[in-house]
Prior knowledge:
Elements (H helix, E strand, L loop, with lengths): L1 E5 L3 H12 L3 E5 L3 H9 L3 E2 L3 H6 L6 E4 L5 H10 L8 E4 L5 H13 L3 E8 L4 H4 L2 E5 L2 H14 L5 E5 L3 H29 L6 H8 L8 H12 L15 H11 L5 H13 L5 H14 L7
Parallel strand pairs: 1-2, 1-4, 2-3, 4-5, 5-6, 7-8
Antiparallel strand pairs: 6-7
Helix pairs in contact: 8-11, 8-12, 9-10
Amino acid sequence: MQLGMIGLGRMGANMTLRLLRGGHDVVSYDRNPEGVAAAAKEGATPALSLAELVSKLAVPRHVWMMVPAGGPVAATIESLVPLLDRGDAIIDGGNSNYRDSIKRAEDLRQKRLHFVDCGTSGGIWGLENGYCLMIGAERDVFERMEPIFATLAPAEGYAHVGPVGAGHFVKMAHNGIEYGLLQAYAEGFELLAAAKYNLDLRRIAALWNQGSVVRSWLLELAELALKKDPTLSSIRGYVEDSGEGRWTVFEAIEHDVPATALAHSLFARFRSRQDDPFGAKLIAALRQEFGGHAVRSE
């Protein structure tokens, strides 16, 4: 099957390569010509502009975007629309807000174009292991694109989860859960690191993956990270968030769902970016005022 791929970063480039290995015809474009050249060396058809990419696709066209959520997605769609014809489909494989995806689908429907929101998980390991795909789309559009999904995903690794919007909603919840899992592992390993036993954390991560109830791929990655740097001394404990955790908490509030673990994990990320936070200073000051407790000076 033929597909246009826009965005050849870590995800888009690897997805392109996996599709090529699966026998698909991929026309690739990126603002960086070096990314286009690298994909061409692997067998992709190069395009140096969106117009060139569209011109090289057979009707009905399928154009997959792997670009950052927000402005870049909106700008790419705006540039694509005049180039496409009735029945063509645009797929957003990034982490867009599901509400934006619903609105984009409605706008494109007025122009007789299809929109697919595809939550994509797998990271840099997806090339070899496959990508988990959570797909929101009209059923017939999903079915005509199914060969692409089947190649990108491992066995049982893709699903039509509902109409447009459902794909990015499911991916949002997925990423919210990821926040909670990461925070749970972080707190557990911090406790182990603080203990008096001089524990081998890499070995414990490997041990827990042998039949324990907390075994997971994240623990496998923890083992790899701790093998490279047993004390993580080369890494600053500054944790970014890319938006999905916030959206998950907002939706939990909207639906009266007590997502306490997910909310805590998001706020813990905020705290990781603070150096000697004011709130902690206030608590120390109040303890001194009401109880005469000692405080530490700057």
